[in-house]
Amino acid sequence: MRVQIVDPAAYTPPYDHALCAALARAGAEVELVTCRFPYGPVPREPGYEVTELFYRRSSGSGGNAKLRRALRAAEHLPGMRRHRRHACGAEVLHYQWLPVPRLDQHLLAPVHPRVFTMHWRLPEAESRIGRTLKDLLGRMDSVIVHTEHGAGRLEREFEVPRERLEVIPHGAFDYLTRQPDEQPLPDELRQVERPVVLAFGLIRPYKGTDVLLEAFAGVEDAELWVVGMPRMPMEPLRELAARAPGRVRFIDRFVTDPEIPAYMRRADVVALPYRNIEQSGVLYTALAFGRPLLLSAVGGFPEIAAQGAARTVPPEDPAALAAALRELLGDPAERERLAAGALAAAQGRYSWDRIGRDTLALYERLLGQGGGGPG
Description:
This protein has helices spanning 13-26, 65-86, 101-104, 128-137, 148-158, 187-190, 209-216, 235-241, 260-266, 281-288, 301-305, 318-329, 332-347, 352-369; strands spanning 2-6, 29-34, 49-52, 92-95, 114-117, 142-145, 165-167, 196-200, 223-227, 247-251, 269-272, 293-296, 310-313. By secondary structure, the chain is α/β, with parallel strands linked by helices. It folds into 2 domains: 2-171 and 351-369, Rossmann fold (3-Layer(aba) Sandwich), CATH 3.40.50.2000; 176-347, 3-Layer(aba) Sandwich (Rossmann fold), CATH 3.40.50.2000. Strands 3-2-1-4-5-6-7 form a 7-stranded parallel β-sheet, sandwiched between helices. A 6-stranded parallel β-sheet has the order 10-9-8-11-12-13, sandwiched between helices. α1 (13-26) packs across α14 (352-369), α7 runs parallel beside α8 (235-241) and α10 (281-288) crosses α13 (332-347).
């Protein structure tokens, strides 16, 4: 079976490469069609081809973000047209992302079955982007969603028939646990002896970093590390941090893959107090490292807790979050239980080999159904 995995803008290269490798191990002939990732090397395993078909100039424009955006705007349509021609060799076309959905839904390659993985944080169904999403998903033969919660929303709010929805979890990013060039923590952080709560990843309003900082004002004898590239003003967060009795450290920059293991392994608790989410790459990183997780009860997060891998609290509730932090930091046995649950989940339901087999089974079922598929 010839499968093309398509991520034009390389939005999720770790996911793309892990899925391609898992499909190849399951027996498919796989090609990843994407662009060169502009921020450095990406993990790659043997067994599949990579074709950098999109954004050939803008992907090499270095650190000039404004220039890269302008070049991408000019390159997008020619790249999608190249993709339509290139896709004729595929039996299954599996889109991970489409960067300009209002336009791209009219430029899909005439190959069926077409599959789309719903990576987005779901918008309001009647918003402009929500209506566009409905139209886009209506052109797919099947839509993969990572959580039962997301599948329910797509069926109820976005009118995707249940028979065209397939729940296949996001995999744990276990490649991060076996990097030959792993980097240690900076000296200052290696010297920390108190328990550490880790908030990791891009800093955005929906991730509830402010809620975590308010909660941390009720936690003593611990440190909070906020690690990641800011995508919001940081001064209000620093003002909240100044009120906490424990030390708050901001490592507010892009953290490379070789640096991630040291932060994850040092964390006593990984906190994701999100306001709104379906699933999270940070969560699946923490699963791979077997870290105790404290999550907001939003989106698909309770499904992780049901695996025995996390504790949940209501979203936007600093008091409940503070109480859960104090309890976990004071109970090593409970942290060990959650850590064991995280590892078991990473090696079971959220393992890439299982995901590869389930995805291949979906392709085979769609091929067996035949027919021309949606327009």
